Amino acid sequence: MLSESRRRGTRVLAGIMLACAVHAQASEPAHSSINLSPGVTTVSQAIYDLHMYTLWVCVAIGVVVFGVMFWSIFAHRKSKGAVASSFHESTSLEIAWTIAPFLILLTFAAPATNTLLSIYDADEAELDVMITGYQWKWKYEYLDQGVAFFSSLSTPRESWDTIGVQQVPPRGENYLLEVDEPLVLPAGKKVRFLVTAADVIHSWWVPQLGVKKDAIPGFINETWTRVERTGTYRGQCAELCGKDHGFMPIVVEVVDEQQFASWLGERRARAEQERVLAAQTLTMDELMQRGEAVYTRSCAACHQPNGEGVPPAFPALKGSAIATGPLEQHLDIVLNGKAGTAMAAFAAQLGHADLAAVITYERNAWGNDTGDMVQPSDVARFEQSE
Amino acid sequence: MAADHHGPAKGIGRWLFTTNHKDIGTMYLWFSFTMFIVGGLFALVIRTELFQPGLQFVKPEFFNQMTTMHGLVMVFGAIMPAWVGLANWMIPLMIGAPDMALPRMNNWSFWILPFAFAMLVATLFSEAGAPNFGWTFYAPLSTAYAPSSVTFFIFGVHLMGMSSIMGAINVIATIINMRAPGMTYMKMPMFVWTWLITAFLLIAVMPVLAGVVTMMLFDIHFGTSFFSAAGGGDPVLFQHVFWFFGHPEVYIMILPAFGVISEVLPTFARKPLFGYTSMVYATASIAFLSFIVWAHHMFTVGMPIAGELFFMYATMLIAVPTGVKVFNWVTTMFRGSLSFETPMLFAIAFIVLFTIGGFSGIMLAMAPLDFQYHDTYFVVAHFHYVLVQGALFSIYCGVYYWLPKWTGHMYDETLSKAHFWLTFIGVNLAFFPMHFVGLAGMPRRIPDYALQFADFNMLSSIGAYVTGFSQLIFLYVVIRCIRGGRPATDRVWEASHGLEWSVPSPAPYHTFAIPPQVR
């Protein structure tokens, strides 16, 4: 009776396991995966090899240990009339199964040490990139190259913020793993990453590079990569960093050396344009248009696209005392942030033109209609007066 | 007998003012189960949101509150109080003592807990919302960037810590001073041994937890900068102090489990525990090692390579004594005469599934591999295998094992087996696919995910629901067993061993007023 029900239970279990396996295989082609990626760098490959070695050794140990156990369950059951032995100690066995695992562990430790040493060797890099984590985007700064920019999620909000939405827009292949400005790297060059954060701890992780490093405010961590193969590699922030932790992906685009040089040139030209723009006087329409774009990129995650915020953590701007009150205060809080809250100092993140535009936008959108116009030169003057 | 004319007080006063180890044990266990249900509901909110891609039910800010509260409630509200409850009930019975050594303090350590958790759970209804920085509450997300409810959280943790420290002092005082004549240390039941070691771990690290939350409190309200680089502090200091508490903490939750399994296996294998002495030494070694491995939770913070190597080697060493325990258990079963009552089913499942959690633990111990696993669902799978299929399974194992002694009735064997099998299927369905999504690159603590993770997440959510609802069967079985059922004999199990089986079933309100003589 008892053994019958047990046998039935085992069959059901086996069926479920099989279903899982079949299910995993069926979804495999649609780029689902059940394992680490070997990646595209020597480091990621070394990690993958060690991972597989450890996994198979564990499986082998499991087969032996569980094998003995299931044999006992099968052969030494009371219902089959088994009579218990009374042996209960053996010093030599205890010593054997203390030493054997230790020796197996040595075979793990040796390659692990080697791989770790190579991961820690960030010397002789040919390019330095400073990576700064912000709530909730990344800043990439090509040191000594005069190029710096922010990289944030480009999956449209409508396709993920779908609470209470009936018709969800179709989701693309790289849903939540796509950004507006990827990190562009030259193939075959050793790139050193200097990783830090501006607010809370983030963690920069691209599985196919085998790189994960915490971004810690006030400290700079160092790591490196060298990717031979051109292509696009995707990752995500790995350390819980607040509300939109799940929405700050990383995209690395590896291009050949020539393309990289021309890309750098393009970025420098764009930076120059920004400087020119900051010296100009803009019309209300220009400011509002630019302001809306900046707001969507930099402010809407907290203060919401409709300006109503998520009080109390993220106050509303619509009809707020700051956005409709004295301009000085508004400039101050946007440029310098507010200590003890999530409000960052945007002077470090945005250019004068963008700051002027977004403040103008906030003072005139959602019925705030103050009619105020802020010019890039106003922002510059405010900064100097501080 | 003393028990006949000095029974429990009547009414609510019995529970409020009791100093009886059995009453207090019972309250701990009910409190733990209540918290388990609450924490389980939080988990179901998480799994419901993760059932498919996109946000459907909760916003990211509430999702973060759920992951935080789920972790805190399960660790501090469900697992730890369950162990203290079992310790209260069983340690005096197992060592032949009339009660715990410090009965009045025992009452206080329990009654602090409902207030601590009321304070913590109440934050859900505050304007700022509950803590949302993860159960590991890394600064500065938990300090400068925290919701104002963080202060309630800090005081809640202080209260839980006081309760745990007093509980631990009580366990140590009881075991050292109140063993029956003839019960030498090396004759103590394994559950008593593992709890003695656990209690020392608690006393050593709960003050460290109190310290770290106090440093947070000062950073938030009194202008210090322990964890802020701008003031000369260091956010990584937080992690060092937290994990100096946190790693021994995970052994606090699993060592008593080793004890329960070591009690249950010999009973249903009808054969003495293999390698008792090495089991004691292995437990002590694990406890010692638990103090020098904390930074393996922090391999990616940018430690110097010497630190990485030290913590990697030390962590890998833990596999040795843990392996010894597993080998001893399997050898205990080998050539026994096995029967498969519900406690035994949970014990066998524990050994298999905890070992799987151990395997992923070895993989995580290797720093270069951890760079890929760290903060992914692979870690979530690992610690649920050791804490759910490990700690929780062994708690169920112990409860079914001793329930007839507590209530005087046998529980319903069929229903309890249904509970076991549904839970077994549920947790594996919930947690095994997490290994896959983790390796494939899904970070933990995210409310929405890329499309390639969709299938396995759906499977995990289904598993979570099966697990969640199966626990209602357990509740039903326990209530039915309290109300009635086939009377249990004093020995309850054919091959039971130890002093707790020498008293009547149900165990009278007062036991061992006259200490028994051990051999």
Description:
Chain A folds into 3 domains: 36-81 and 89-121, Helix Hairpins; 127-155 and 175-275, Cupredoxins -  blue copper proteins (Immunoglobulin-like, Sandwich); 279-385, Cytochrome c-like domain (Cytochrome Bc1 Complex, Chain D, domain 2, Orthogonal Bundle). Chain A contains 11 helices and 10 strands. Chain A has helices at 2-27, 42-75, 91-119, 157-160, 257-278, 284-298, 300-303, 321-324, 327-336, 352-364, 376-385; strands spanning 127-134, 137-142, 147-151, 183-186, 191-197, 202-206, 211-215, 221-225, 231-237, 249-255. The radius of gyration of chain A is 29 Å and the shape is elongated. Chain B has a single domain (20-502), classed as Cytochrome C Oxidase, Chain A (Up-down Bundle), CATH 1.20.210.10. Helices cover 68% and strands 0% of the residues of chain B. Chain B is globular, with a radius of gyration of 23 Å. The chains are: A alpha+beta (386), B mainly alpha (519). At the A-B interface, helix 1, helix 2, helix 3, strand 7 and strand 9 of A face helix 4, helix 8, helix 9, helix 10 and helix 11 of B.
What is this entry, summarized?
The complex is a heterodimer of chains A (386) and B (519). Chain A is an alpha+beta fold.
